[in-house]
């Protein structure tokens, strides 16, 4: 037996073999038996008198949802005192108002004093009402609830503990949600300090230990402790340097400074941590989270069970490496050091990385072969993703060439003056390029994204977090190791970090205080999910690559089949591959049209007919399900338009603003198309596949952006820079420029310094 304060805790609970808690958040979705502890601050209203009904209804809804999934839910709740206090205050006010109305008149009602209410009396008055409220709420979800009242003494008697255990197991067997509370109507005398305003404290602080006791006693998989703070902080919440602790490990108490308790309840965070660690030792996983925040309280319990990064997760398994938050901080510090290097030093790192890619070609290809074999054995990747996963000698050579281009073009990217203005005499203003900060590049199936993104981040002086798909784990590890080896030549190894923890992408997108820009590289579904999940972090990218080629009546016969073949067949899995072919109506049933169809058949491209095209045919190919389809394979849609104007309208309606092409010899028609199509890349008589950072001479790209701010099209170094303003003065103050002041604004544009063009 060991003790906290004067309360004994039996370290090996009755009839329970020592269990093992979940090591990672992602495993919480497997939790079968769950205890939800509702603190006083969660259950009570802000005025500390009465219950927060909306919040309570939301909690009941989440518990019901999990119960109906087949889980076994239990609730340890506070609130009886607050509910009873509300009822007794109402009765006292009503009684006093009647007496005063009889003796003194209505004018003195406002002076009535409400006596301090005895806590046990409040609990006695509130317990039945609290339970009735829970029953009414759970009934809406066809779930039965049962109340169990306990005291500390019930845990000291072995027979009572057996009885309690048996009762709870029987209720769970019958699919009933037990609602457990301390029997505050019969607790020992209260302590001298106060709990709820105007009510002497009861053993509310024991609800934390009660929940932990029950969780371990019942061999519970998960204990969720809801309070009025986001979780456990390394110092009191609200202090300047306070940081939320994502995962707390036994032995970390020394690194935490505990503050005062919440507005209600006597538990306090220190008591919660002690209870959590005791439950963890007993084999129960624990999460402490905020149950009062209006934006998250409606899904906080279900989010925790789904493994999302909410609150503080208690784990006995300490990871071998740093947390993702620590990695982001390391990347920011490393990025700042990187930005402070001379341009030649940053270029030297990239040249070194290019050399390493060719020098370690066999090692890289061997790791990639492992990834491909595992992916094929599991059968989880579609053919287009398998193609993106594959590396080859030619791919590595192209990568190395692209990296050398980046190194050569990065000499004056950071710190370049793009505007100079003389504000007034001896007051000069400059706008200069600077790194964005910390980039998060999320990519799936494309290990070549790692050296490309790393080189662009290095050239632009940004810190970088890389999150690759598990399917490319072996390739990514080798490529990241080589990247860090190159960075080490100037002591900035930490500037590029590979996230290997079990972080969900959605959780990474919430790190708005650590990440400045997210760049997704992958399927349209991945990009959409990231855009939806990102909270406060801008996302650069495109959700789909629905690229069009319009064949005009004045198109060259020699050019049409070459451009269409290259756009569709050269690499159909790419985001810049042709997906919809628009044909001028006058070309139907012409030799040119027949050549196009024959070429597509030879290349084994499956054709889907658009609605208008299908109407012209007696026996048509399968009609397209949607004109907004990105096939990513040897498939495409053919649709008929009446001319360039309709082609532009079709692209605007069904396209994704990525890359669109016109094939024509009519310059006037081509210029109309180029000027009116509102896409990131618009080409005349050229393949859609030219929409690429390497082919544009950017060296490489971190992605193609279809957004309308900051960067658009293939994003190279320039797209990873922002600016800051430098003002150099000599004792200047704004008051000198007032009507009575001695100085006048000049606002004279100054010549820019000569750029390095070597």
Task: Give a verbal description of the structure.
Residues 323-588 form the Aldehyde dehydrogenase domain. Pathway: Amino-acid biosynthesis; L-proline biosynthesis; L-glutamate 5-semialdehyde from L-glutamate: step 2/2; Amino-acid biosynthesis; L-proline biosynthesis; L-glutamate 5-semialdehyde from L-glutamate: step 1/2. In the N-terminal section; belongs to the glutamate 5-kinase family. In the C-terminal section; belongs to the gamma-glutamyl phosphate reductase family. Its main location: mitochondrion. It catalyses: L-glutamate + ATP = L-glutamyl 5-phosphate + ADP; L-glutamate 5-semialdehyde + phosphate + NADP(+) = L-glutamyl 5-phosphate + NADPH + H(+). There is one protein chain. The protein has 3 domains: 25-92 and 118-185 and 200-314, 3-Layer(aba) Sandwich (Carbamate kinase), CATH 3.40.1160; 324-413 and 432-533, Aldehyde Dehydrogenase, Chain A, domain 1 (3-Layer(aba) Sandwich); 548-701, Aldehyde Dehydrogenase, Chain A, domain 2 (3-Layer(aba) Sandwich), CATH 3.40.309.10. A hairpin with a 2-residue loop joins strand 11 (417-424) and strand 12. The protein is of the alpha/beta class and 758 residues long. The relative contact order is 0.08. It is 37% helix and 17% strand. The strands form 6 sheets. An 8-stranded mixed beta sheet has the order 5-6-4-3-7-9-10-8, with helices on both faces. The chain has a 6-stranded parallel beta sheet with strand order 19-20-18-17-21-22, sandwiched between helices. Strands 25-12-11-26 form a 4-stranded antiparallel beta sheet, with no helix packed on it. Residues 1-18, 190-205 and 262-267 have low confidence and may be disordered. The longest helix has 24 residues, at 80-103. The protein is globular. The chain is built from 22 helices and 26 strands.
